[in-house]
Design a protein that fits this description.
Length: about 200
């Protein structure tokens, strides 16, 4: 209806129709192109915007985790488990045991579960007998042993040959792995002519 009226009006008054058309064209142009005020506002806005600075490092290094020290020698059942020390056995050295166990061991308070008497043997015989005795005792699950070496005094050292060699034999690698500690026996068990030998519980 509006368009029909405008056409009738244009026929009646051509001048008014021309003015109407110019107004519509100007209005359409204003929609397509923003005015100077809009352009100025946009330029003012863009001037205040600053581009983000790119950091040099796109990736950050991940810090290495700190090493946590775990004691692999816990005190369990009177001895340090899972220990395979290369330290040589010495008579009376009980550093690898807790104080209470070491005291009982040195006092001969452990029940002797196996004993061997090397009296009267040659060195070769005593060596074979002692090493075999230790292996058999370990396989049988025994712990507290008594090794009687005898005195058999020698002029050079003042000690018996077997008594002097026994600690060295017990340090042989294939035997050492079974043994936790050795110490001199109490007088009731032979004193200086005998040794207490304590085997490990863990014999892996």
């Amino acid at each position: 209806m509006v368009q029909v009226r405008n056409r009738l009006r244009a026929v009646r008054n051509p001048k008014e129709h021309s003015t109407y058309c110019c107004q519509r064209q100007a209005k359409a142009m204003s929609k397509k192109h923003p005015g100077d005020d809009d352009k100025g506002a946009w330029e003012s806005l863009t001037e205040t915007v600053k581009p983000l600075k790119q950091t040099k490092k796109l990736f950050h290094e991940i810090p290495k985790p700190k090493r946590i020290h775990v004691d692999s020698k816990p005190m369990i059942g009177g001895e340090r488990q899972f220990v395979r020390s290369d330290k040589s056995l010495t008579v009376g050295n009980t550093d690898q045991m807790d104080h209470r166990t070491a005291r009982k061991f040195k006092r001969g308070e452990f029940r002797v579960e196996g004993r061997i008497d090397l009296h009267g043997m040659t060195l070769d015989q005593a060596y074979t007998a002692l090493t075999s005795f230790i292996e058999r005792s370990a396989e049988a699950g025994k712990r507290s042993l008594l090794v009687i070496t005898g005195h058999g005094l020698r002029s050079e050292t003042g000690r018996g040959a077997i008594r002097e060699q026994a600690p060295r034999w017990l340090n042989e690698p294939f035997i050492r792995r079974y043994i936790l500690a050795i110490t001199q026996a109490e007088p009731k068990d032979g004193g200086q002519g005998a040794l207490y030998v304590l085997l490990r519980r863990d014999r892996q």
